[in-house]
Write a structure and sequence with these properties.
It contains 3 helices and 10 strands; from the N terminus they run E-H-E-E-E-E-H-E-H-E-E-E-E. The protein is of the alpha/beta class. The protein has a single domain, classed as Putative cyclase (Glucose Oxidase, domain 1, 3-Layer(bba) Sandwich). Helix 2 runs parallel beside helix 3.
Length: about 170
């Protein structure tokens, strides 16, 4: 059997990434990976600082791609990239409750690597909310209405897949 590393660059996590009885990348529908989007400005947080749920209260996140701009893409290729802010448990629960369809971040991981429970991956993927990590240039979306594209190749039995993520600004 041949193995292919799929969690590299900007990539999409399917529910199968955390839950082996859930859908894999090959089972995702196109309308799940092309969504209206909103961007949250979370620039200014420090390494290992959690983004609170209150940052999402002023935005309609229902059935949308919710992208969090920590501004961390500026550290890509540097050691600082691996000490990053993340989304708090309370915020993850809020996004799940409000039925966000995809949550993306411009960090290496949506969860703190110090939390082995991986609350974002566990909670969001269990309810079929997709995750995108290692995004870039999210600051260009501030104040715009846009549609977010996170289309992977249809790879059967695959938990994650690199994507060419982009937004179509209206």
């Amino acid at each position: 059997m041949m193995y292919f590393q799929t969690s590299i660059g900007t990539y999409l996590d399917s529910p199968y990434h955390r839950w082996k009885d859930r859908r894999d990348i090959g089972q995702l529908a196109l309308e799940e990976v092309i969504l209206p989007g909103v961007v949250i400005d979370a620039r200014g947080l420090a390494p290992w600082q959690a983004l609170g749920a209150e940052c999402f209260y002023h935005v309609d996140v229902r059935r949308k791609a919710v992208l969090v701009n920590f501004g961390w893409d500026r550290y890509w290729g540097k050691e600082e990239y691996y000490a990053y802010p993340f989304i708090s448990r309370e915020a993850i629960l809020y996004l799940a409750q409000e039925n966000a369809k995809l949550v993306g971040v411009d960090t290496v991981n949506i969860d703190s690597s110090k939390d082995v429970q991986r609350p974002a991956h566990s909670t969001l993927l269990k309810q079929e909310t997709l995750i995108v990590e290692n995004l870039t240039n999210l600051e260009t979306l501030h104040g715009n209405h846009f549609r977010f594209f996170a289309v992977p190749i249809k790879a059967v039995g695959t938990a994650a897949m690199p994507i060419r993520a982009f937004a179509e600004v209206e």
